[in-house]
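Lab notebook: predicted structure, single chain.

Context: the supervisor wants predicted structures on file for every construct in the current expression panel, including those that have not yet been purified. This is the next one on the list. No modifications to the sequence; it matches the entry in the shared construct table.
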Amino acid sequence: QYLPDCEIWLTEFGWETSIYDTPFSALEVGSFSREEVQAQRIVREYLLLSSTGIDRAAQYMLRNAENNGRTQHSSSGFTTIKGEWYPKPSWYYVYTMKNTLKGMFFVGEQASMNANVNIYKYQNASADTTVYALWCPTSNDVFVDDYQLSLPNAPKSAQLVEMVVGETEGKASELNILRNTVKVDVSERPIFVVTTSSTNSASIIAKMESSFSLYPNYTSNMIGIEVSTESKNIETEVTIINPIGKTVMTTKSDLAVFQVDVSKLVSGIYYARIKNGRQTEVHKFIKY
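Prediction complete. Output recorded below exactly as produced.
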């Protein structure tokens, strides 16, 4: 209303996992651990922010300052402390949300007819793919089993994408569409239902699958490479390429999780070409 030509950014929201007595403490809920609750709440916050028109949002913070610290915000990271970089559930959950909603735009909230279920709707530019994000907006271990999600666009195929630890693309499975509805179990951990006008449902799942993860994508010294289960026990080659296409370094490893030292690179944008057997992917990162 007042600054229509200016972007609005929100920074430094998050939840910590080692302190019990701050407004930002993620506490155990039912069978959910503190790190699980942190992951759920960060994803829910990103979804809520997407509905407000905010242009960018940045969670606080990438890594823990202390894994078991007593300082406020010290355990709010997606990963453990610098040097360890062990991903917490929030790393995988936010990555899954990011990958699932890539290229999508928030188009509105869909009435759920159930006070315990929130539904946000996203579409791509061509409107041939719609993603529904569903979760219980509670914090007391609420579950809604066999919820019937209405699909008013009458899609040809639908897949459920669940956030799971160890997977940056989530766990995808096909859903049976009956009279333009699908049944899903909803909890305080958000899920995504990806629908398309195409009958080739396998193409959606294939698009979501990835053989490698790179983290962090904004670093001053090290990047971590994680190889999927299907690509383990095969030597992985990582080639770092600068923006003009020149190879600046190459390294190899036969480990499933390993680090690459990029501290000697000049600041800028780089691309990591990761090759393992027949699998090749390119991931972007920023060296500062």
